Amino acid sequence: MKIVCTGYGVLAPNTINIDAYKKNLEQGNCALELEEGAGPKDESNIVGYIREGLEEFELDKKEKRLPRVTKMGIKATKEAINSARIDLEGKKVGLFFGVSLGATGEELYQDAIKQANEDNYRKVPLVFSHYANTHSISAAIAHSIGLKGMVKTITTGCTSSLEAVEEAMVYLKSGKIDVAIVGGSDTPICPPTTYAFSKTRVLPLNQGLEDGAVPFHSDSAGFAMAEAAGAVILEREEDAVHRSADIRGEIVDIVSNNDGIYIFSLDESGEQMLAALKEVTMNRTPDYINSQALGIQINDKIEEKCSKTLFDHKIPYTSIKSMYGNPFGAIGILQVISTLLSLEHGFIPPTIRTDKKGYESMNVVTQTVYQEVKEVAITNHGYGGNNACAYIKKYNHR
């Protein structure tokens, strides 16, 4: 049984819809920015903010009250449904959304904690409990599209939305649902996360865009936090064909695991990522790897190890995080959508801003490559030790 994608939607920095996403990926446009005075000692930091695309929510009193992360998810989900040209009426629909920090970085949440700790009962907003409840994000997205069926929230760090795809595939193959709406949304940028990751020395503080948050570059001191949302529509092949849907690609398989180490340490071996990628590729030869490399040296060296061990550095590697940073729970679905666009339009997006210093042996794509793309593997790693790897193919009509 084949699981196929029939629609997608995205909202990200400098990206208000799928057309803008394709353009930025193809042209190698950087959506990140340097934020001055953001660090614990007023250092600069590299981040990815969404500056436009949510204006419509200001027009509705109820929607205006929703957390920013929820509005982002709604926006991406509605674009995905429109893209798929699907009528959900009468179908068994499941919604699966991946979230890492959710609304915990938003100003209302942060202020409510402060007010509560100062015993200012009246200043704690009535809506705080829903800001604190990660599943309220998925529930609100479901309500916005009139869905009363299965609604699930997956939260496994930065692998959340890719593992949401994995779970949705299981439900589609079992027949428990007919259509899966799968996505991810996260807005992690705030002082607490900046301070926390500064403590672990994985942020590019006082680095410029030329050397900070650069995948596959040994001078990069860390990753760029970003906000984003994405969503896809998944169906069984026969159902999609029956309704003459425009099939964007086939999700062949997803494999996930955990490093299995003490949470206050880091896995430098990469053995579990290697195992997941080996299992999902099954000796197949992808046209390229849509990598999770993000500018943290430990993570990027694990990608280098996988490249050498499994492909002898012959398979091209790229990372869209060079353009979009790392939007935590949403990055997996952004990688899926970028892969689908690559399959459809015949190009490999570049890893921008790197000269491959320290990674010269790898086959890193630094300029857009135009070619037929038939098969792609995705690597994804999450804080907390989860690894998730996907294999996606161009759909071949029977």
UniProtKB/TrEMBL annotation:
<dbReference type="InterPro" id="IPR018201">
    <property type="entry name" value="Ketoacyl_synth_AS"/>
</dbReference>
<dbReference type="InterPro" id="IPR016039">
    <property type="entry name" value="Thiolase-like"/>
</dbReference>
<dbReference type="GO" id="GO:0006633">
    <property type="term" value="P:fatty acid biosynthetic process"/>
</dbReference>
<dbReference type="InterPro" id="IPR014031">
    <property type="entry name" value="Ketoacyl_synth_C"/>
</dbReference>
<protein>
    <submittedName>
        <fullName>Beta-ketoacyl synthase</fullName>
    </submittedName>
</protein>
<dbReference type="Pfam" id="PF00109">
    <property type="entry name" value="ketoacyl-synt"/>
</dbReference>
<dbReference type="InterPro" id="IPR014030">
    <property type="entry name" value="Ketoacyl_synth_N"/>
</dbReference>
<feature type="domain" description="Ketosynthase family 3 (KS3)">
    <location>
        <begin position="1"/>
        <end position="394"/>
    </location>
</feature>
<dbReference type="GO" id="GO:0004315">
    <property type="term" value="F:3-oxoacyl-[acyl-carrier-protein] synthase activity"/>
</dbReference>
<dbReference type="Pfam" id="PF02801">
    <property type="entry name" value="Ketoacyl-synt_C"/>
</dbReference>
<comment type="similarity">
    <text>Belongs to the thiolase-like superfamily. Beta-ketoacyl-ACP synthases family.</text>
</comment>
<dbReference type="InterPro" id="IPR000794">
    <property type="entry name" value="Beta-ketoacyl_synthase"/>
</dbReference>
<keyword id="KW-0808">Transferase</keyword>
<dbReference type="InterPro" id="IPR020841">
    <property type="entry name" value="PKS_Beta-ketoAc_synthase_dom"/>
</dbReference>
